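Sample entry was shown:

___
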Amino acid sequence: MHRTDYPATGAWSAALPAGRRQFLSLGERAIALDVGATLRDVVVAYETWGTLNDDASNAILICHAWTGDSHVAGSAGEGHPTPGWWEGLVGPGLAIDTNEWFVVCSNVLGGCQGTTGPASTNPATGRPYGSAFPVITVRDMVRAQLRLADSLGVRRWHSVIGGSMGGMQALEWAITYPDRVGSLVAIGTCVQSTAQQIAWGAIGRRAIRLDPKWRGGDYYDAVVGDGPWQGLAIARMVAQVTFRSDNVFTDRFGRDLADLDAENNGIGLWDKFEVERYLDHHGDRLIRRFDANSYLLIGKAMDLHDVARGRGGLARAMSRITAPTLALGISSDILYPTYQQ
């Protein structure tokens, strides 16, 4: 990737179309974070589908993964550069039928698609938080979602559903607020991040930190092409490898060359295989819709994820789950293998 038109951040801002987003402003109702800090004037961006019934018993919360957002379903358009990430599952007559269920998804705390995060304006300075944004945890994300549930009048979710980091949030909901979760669906996730998962995350964070254009996290005034896009792209490329097994990569790409007309039969140092072009593509896409600081913070929250922390051990923590639970693994996922489900 040698482009120079990458934005300093792919974060959504109020200067852009809101699309289907709705916003909850917490104002002075601060969120106390696990790190010991508090956040005031938090805004939660969310989307809804379907209609909440009279007794608020048909509400389903869907929690997004690392680089996801609130746009679970719906077409691409103003405010949403891509279609909903579960477009084929959520909607009228689909598996999660919005003719029957009131579906909610919010952008997580620390994110960059409308909910308060490092690209948001710090009310104390009038400038983006940048490096001043505190470390967050998955439990902190759920605390923000709890405020949203209260504002919507949802006392108990019929179900909380999530995959990957979304599954971490779903687990924390069921453990922290068991009386507010009717059922739990956790897909391709874990109860505690392992050493290998943390190691993958560390490589991605190092790529961003070593990008000189990251500027310690304060890069939001950079001109187009002068933000930390190289570090973010490499971090995404690393992560993308962990989402698929060797068999999946082999079946899809094999040893095919990206440029069949390359000189010397593709033996040149910078001649690419198809799998390299695939990684470049995903790095390019993320740069345009995500923020490097959010990537760092959310990735760290995943590494910090441990439902046993402060709860007297794993067995004790899991015993707090009272909701019927469906845990699903994905056989081709090497980051969260099936044995962890």
Remarks:
- The radius of gyration is 20 Å.
- The first strand starts at residue 22 and ends at 25.
